[in-house]
Amino acid sequence: MAIEAGDFKTGLTLIVDGDPWQVIDFQHVKPGKGAAILRTKMKNLKTGATQERNFNANVKFDAAVIEKRPAQYSYSADNTYYFMDMESFETYELSEEQVGFNKYFLTESMEVQLMLFEGQLLAISVPDKVELVVAETSPAIKGAPSTQTKDAVTDTGLTLRVPQFIEEGEKILVSSIDGKYSSRA
User: Fold this and answer.
1) Structural domain range at position 147
2) What CATH code is carried by the domain that includes residue 156?
3) How far apart are CA 69 and CA 83, in angstroms?
4) Are residues 90 and 134 part of one domain?
């Protein structure tokens, strides 16, 4: 299926130069004269590299068919993460580079989605909101405004800003998209 650059959406996967790429961000730009261009920020799903590229709005690309399979996070050792396919019970391993920012959201026995392109495992997809435990934070400041935040570190190593009332040992919901505090769990 052909996709025109003018029809880009965030999260769209397509084939550029033989590799699967995912659109992270895009912007239509109309210069003073000439045809409109599309300024994009894209991630190569094979290498994990992010790149900014410009395309004419009428250029066509093939859609990259990414197969998603349910899996369970098992454990990590020596910068390698191990996952078990929930259907075939086969074990898959990914490097820390392939897991990327998602490493901060992986908890024991968590269900994730394996992302495969032409049978090759590329990456994982975690739920949009993840429950994590606050491992370290400073005590609340008495009399501080309710909108004031403080630093906290989760049990997975993620550092983020949380409201003053959050204490060590509390469970919180964190957005896996941007790594920000969402609410108490």
Assistant:
1) 130-184
2) 2.40.50.140
3) 11
4) no
pLDDT digits (tens, 9 = 90+) for 75-131: 999 999 999 999 999 999 998 888 888 999 999 999 999 988 888 888 888 999 999
Using one digit for the tens of pLDDT, what is the confidence trace for 35-78?
A: 888 899 998 888 777 899 988 888 888 988 889 999 999 999 99
Q: Where are the beta strands (DSSP E) in the chain?
A: 2-4, 13-16, 19-29, 37-44, 50-56, 60-63, 67-77, 80-85, 91-95, 111-117, 120-125, 129-137, 149-154, 159-163, 171-175, 181-184
Q: Give the dihedral sign, CA 10/12/13/18.
A: negative
For tokens 């961000």, name the residue.
Answer: 25
